[in-house]
From TrEMBL:
It comes from Ditylum brightwellii. GO terms for molecular function: ATP binding; calcium ion binding; protein serine/threonine kinase activity. Keywords: ATP-binding, Kinase, Nucleotide-binding, Serine/threonine-protein kinase, Transferase. This is Calmodulin. Residues 1-159 form the Protein kinase domain.
Length: 336
């Protein structure tokens, strides 16, 4: 599903580095081996999906080569292992944005390798094996003459399973979740905030108006059926809409409340579980304030007050708060 945004037809997302993936890209051309090296010249738009094109394909007179495919393999590998496109971390870039970035990565730019590290090999690769990272670097080598050959790719120890980690990639699902939450945000801004600020920021009133426009049933929550109706008009598949909705439903209640919608639209999401945790923490804090804080200020004035509140919640008096005690507090506040 993740790669459909960038033109791929079918994928299997891995749980560990060892798992394989099947990809069927939408475009292909017949290529000739041993073609002469490309010359720096006027930019042009290459045949194929921009998100998978290497920097050299934006040169005038360029054609696809085996090296082009190796770059695309590197991009696909990065997406599957990190849950984001190497040059579109938050899934909000246009083809022109990606093209502009790739042009900057040409070997003629003396700083192109440092730029690759800054844009691609950032915190997203944390948890991947050194061998895996080294392979992606060789696949996404901006200089096609230095890029990994297909026969060397097949013999690489990571591909052979000799150096690939068998450790479950616990953050992979979270990264995918973050991407879909960004998709929710960017698609809504694209549809409802075309005339808003260039940075995509929205006022509180803007958000309320958008929420009301999405709330077709006027019942104060966004249901899957409503999101289906709106997002289907944007050309998003039903399967992807369901995935987007599940990731946007931060508290797992089956509907998107105003508070969830506001949290999703307000934050520049780069950590799916972080956003969800912060949202739930804020709700817990609100319930504690409503039940225990000074009613006039809705604040907790000092540490002694915090200790008193902790003791009040600690029903067993054992110095810790267990799930049952938290459940009692939340249920008294109307939480399910």
């Amino acid at each position: 599903q993740l790669l459909q945004k960038y033109g791929a037809k079918s994928t299997l997302c891995p749980k560990t580095e060892q798992h394989e993936a099947v990809v069927d890209n939408s475009k292909g051309v017949t290529i000739q081996h041993n073609e002469p090296p490309l010359q720096e010249a006027e930019d042009h738009m290459p045949l194929g999906t921009i998100a998978y094109c290497p920097p050299e394909l934006f040169l005038k007179g360029s054609t696809a080569t085996p090296a082009s495919d190796m770059w695309a393999i590197g991009v696909i590998m990065f997406i599957l292992l990190t849950g984001s496109h190497p040059f579109d971390r938050f899934s909000d870039k246009t083809d022109d944005d990606i093209k502009d970035t790739l042009i900057k990565l040409r070997p003629s730019n003396s700083d192109h390798l440092n730029l690759m590290d800054e844009l691609v090999f950032d915190d997203r690769i944390e948890g991947l094996s050194d061998s895996c990272i080294a392979l992606m670097r060789r696949l996404m080598q901006p200089d096609p003459n230095k890029r990994l050959l297909s026969e060397d790719f097949l013999r690489h120890p990571w591909i052979q399973g000799l150096t690939a980690s068998w450790k479950t990639m616990g953050k992979a699902h979270d990264k995918l979740k973050s991407l879909w939450q960004n998709k929710f945000r960017t698609e809504i801004i694209k549809k409802y905030a075309k005339d808003g600020p260039g940075d995509g920021s929205l006022s509180e009133n803007n958000l309320k108006e958008i929420f009301q426009a999405l709330d077709l049933k006027k019942n104060g929550v966004l249901e899957l059926e409503e999101i289906m109706t709106v997002f289907r008009d944007m050309g998003i598949t039903e399967e992807n809409i369901r995935t987007i909705f599940e990731c946007a439903d931060l508290d797992g209640t089956g509907v998107i409340h105003w508070e969830e919608f506001r949290a999703l639209m307000r934050e520049h999401i780069n950590d799916g579980p972080g956003l969800q945790v912060r949202y739930l923490q804020q709700r817990f804090k609100s319930h504690v304030l409503n039940n225990f804080a000074d009613k006039e200020t809705t604040t907790i004035s000092d540490r002694s007050n915090l200790r008193e509140i902790f003791k009040a919640i600690d029903l067993k008096g054992n110095g810790i708060l267990d799930p049952h005690e938290i459940r009692v507090v939340l249920r008294s506040a109307g939480e399910q």
